Amino acid sequence: MILPPPHIAVLVLDTPIQGITEKYGDFGDNTIDLIKNTGTTSFNFVKYQLNTEDPEQLEKVYEELYSAVHNHLIEGFALTGSRSDAFSTLPWLVKFKSVLKNTILKLDKPVVGLCFGHQVIASVLGCKVDRSNDGWEVGITTISINDDIYKLKDSPFTELSQTENIDDAGQDYDAAVLFDHLNLVESHRDVVLGGLPTDFINFGSTSKCSIQGMVSIDNGDGNKRNCRVITFQGHPEFTTDLALDLLKYKFDAGLLNEKEYEKAKYHTSSLNNQGNLIGKVINKFLFNEAHTKEEA
Questions:
Q1: What range(s) does the Glutamine amidotransferase domain occupy (predicted)?
Q2: Collapsing DSSP states into helix, strand and coil, what is residue 72?
């Protein structure tokens, strides 16, 4: 087996979507593009396709993943979205949950979860994940951000800021202002319900989803770093064009009615997609962790 260079392991948890993947790449490609396009660091990436019902193929991929772990070649993990349910009992998912709980989350590596990735991390940490009573949350959606994420030591969320001109008692100056709202693409009807896992805080909320992401925090005993795990219910990796095509895909598949589709399409076409800002957060998160390792 030829070993790859040190890399971010992108765990691809969905299969190709006809008419979408050919045009935009799979969810792993979208995640890699987000990180590359919003950062200044030069990470290597390796995709691991873990959503397959082929036992031989699945075993081969896990052999490659375990080899990379044992040879200390993985610098961090990114878990993609998926059309699967985080609470299903599909064989590939049962195996993945076991590996996630007993191996990946026990490694001292940064872990990012996007949409399904967020839900499955919450699930193995003891949260209930189920269908939302409010149905689909789709298209670009405005999220209310939890101010507590900015108060964490070495918080990567300070990337969520913009420079504004301030006039204070005749003194005119530029200052960085932190966002209290953010627009991200959403594409889910399952949500994390109830309380957060121990040592996590909520990223933000919307009217349809009260837990829009999770951030791990230092538990006070020095054994856990702030922000070693960061998840988002939204899809910062989805461009507006991809989001619009996914809405059409869902509408054509009968998953959205015409009213839901037209409303989501309007919001997606008119609201500013700020996924690139979350890309900067993810870059700072991964970059800080990598340098912490180098300095240790």
A1: 100-240
A2: coil
pLDDT in tens, 112-130: 999 999 999 999 999 999 9
- Indicate the pLDDT class of residue 275, thresholds 50, 70 and 90: very high
Q: Which residues contact 214 (CB under 8 A, 6 or more apart)?
A: 118, 121, 122, 192, 196, 197, 200, 201, 202, 203, 229, 230, 231
Beta pairing partners, 215: 201, 230
pLDDT tens readout for residues 194-226: 789 888 999 999 999 999 999 998 765 554 445
Number of neighbouring beta carbons within 10 Å of residue 184? 26
Contact 9, 77 (CB under 8 A): yes
Question: Encoding tokens for residue 48?
Answer: 């691991």
Distance of alpha carbon 279 from alpha carbon 269, whole angstroms: 20
- Spatial neighbors of 211 by CB under 8 A, at least 6 apart, are 122, 191, 192, 193, 196, 202, 203, 205, 233
- Phi first, then psi, for residue 268 (nearest 5°) are -70, -35
Q: Is 263 helix (H, G, I), strand (E, B) or coil?
A: helix
Task: Write out the two tokens for 3.
Answer: 């070993």
- Measured CA to CA, the distance from residue 226 to residue 277 in angstroms comes to 20
Q: Nearest Cα to 75, choosing from 45, 47, 34?
A: 45
List, in sequence order, the alpha helices (H) in 220-257.
240-252
